[in-house]
């Protein structure tokens, strides 16, 4: 940075390099020094690994998984010199959602509607519940919900007792768009029917159930 300022001073104010270095408190030997280090390969690798807007740790892990053996000190030095440490995280974009017709199935376990709701106890402790509704006969159930791993365990328990659905309709909540949940549905031949963002009416069956359920403590 100081080298750039020295060059700018000499060009704009027509002063000598010695004078400009003195003003910037920069030794002349440092100004004339040219590094022989070639970091172009590391810079290119960082750019490729940073396409998702992740921070240094995820970028470094991605480089290691790709077989790059550079240590974290070298990668972080170049990462900072590229000003990547000042980048803002890119917002994750959802894929286009196709509106699917909301119709009552002819048999049970054809389509389940699921959604999560939250509430709090009198002591102030908050909790979340996963509601599951069979669109055929409106048979419903609820379980305490945590991360996506907990979501999968809940669905496996319900499937064990009630059977496996062909489709699951849900919104774009973080636990529903998680890769672990999507992979689990794919492995179990369950089609995910995501509603369009901002259109809760496309999941009207479960939304009506959420609104008509008694509040906590009732």
Give an overview of the whole structure:
- This protein has 218 residues and is of the alpha/beta class.
- The protein has 2 domains: 2-86, no CATH class; 111-212, Nucleotidyltransferase, domain 5 (2-Layer Sandwich).
- The protein has 9 helices and 5 strands.
- The chain has helices at 2-13, 17-23, 28-32, 40-49, 56-65, 72-81, 148-162, 179-187, 204-212; strands spanning 111-120, 126-134, 140-144, 167-170, 191-194.
- Strands 3-2-1-4-5 form a 5-stranded mixed β-sheet.
- It starts with a helix and ends in a 6-residue tail after the last helix.
Provide a compact summary of the structure.
The protein is an alpha/beta fold. It has 9 helices and 5 strands, in the order ααααααβββαβαβα.
List the helices and strands and how they pair.
Layout: H1 2-13, H2 17-23, H3 28-32, H4 40-49, H5 56-65, H6 72-81, E1 111-120, E2 126-134, E3 140-144, H7 148-162, E4 167-170, H8 179-187, E5 191-194, H9 204-212
Parallel strand pairs: 1-4, 4-5
Antiparallel strand pairs: 1-2, 2-3
The unreliable regions are none
Radius of gyration: 28 Å
- Could you give the count of β-strands? 5
Please state the average pLDDT score: 83
The CATH C-level class name of the largest domain: Alpha Beta
What is the terminal-to-terminal distance? 65 Å
The number of helical runs is 9
Question: What is the CATH architecture descriptor of the largest domain?
Answer: 2-Layer Sandwich
Into which percent range does the helicity of residues fall?
25-40%
Largest sheet: number of strands, sense, barrel closure: 5 strands, mixed
Work out the count of structural domains. 2
Percent strand equals 5-15%
Instruction: Give the structural class.
Output: alpha/beta
Here the CATH topology of the largest domain equals: Nucleotidyltransferase, domain 5
Shape: elongated
